[in-house]
Amino acid sequence: MMNLLTLAQDSDGGGGAIFVLVELAILVFFIVTFWKIFGKAGQPGWYSLIPIFNIYILLKIVGRPWWWLILCMIPFVGIIIAIIVTLDLAKSFGKGVGFAIGMILLGIVFYPILAFGSAEYQGPAAA
Q1: Contact present, 40 and 121 (Cβ < 8 Å)
Q2: Which of 44, 75, 95, 126 has the smallest CB count inside 10 Å?
């Protein structure tokens, strides 16, 4: 029976398996991080696990209308929308533009700071 590690191995040995394990660790880390962010904003944390619906809830957290979800699906426009929503998310937790830029450029550091730090949800920034 093949398992995840067997599928990830390449002909050189186990380098692919290590890569897959690191990816899985980062994925779990971000799941926990977004679960915590949703919880701080008064939403059930498990909402962060549901694709597309989690974007809708994130838009609700930052105070943007539901139809922005459609804009998120448009190539290139979605990138701009993601940047705006990230700025709004930082502001919703009482952080500034500098923190939002950190979230955009170095998310693996700044999202956990938002989730596990002392930042409190202030309400939708875009409302």
Answers
A1: yes
A2: 75
Q: How many degrees, rounded to 5, is the angle at CA 85 between CA 84 and CA 89?
A: 120
Q: Give the model confidence (pLDDT) of 20-33 as tens digits.
A: 999 999 999 999 99
Return the domain boundaries, the chain.
13-116
Instruction: Give me the chain's average pLDDT, please.
Output: 90
Angle at 73 between CA 63 and CA 102, to 5 degrees: 60
Q: How far is CA 93 from CA 26, 40, 42, in A?
A: 23, 9, 12
The tokens for 112 are 């956990």
pTM of the model: 0.83
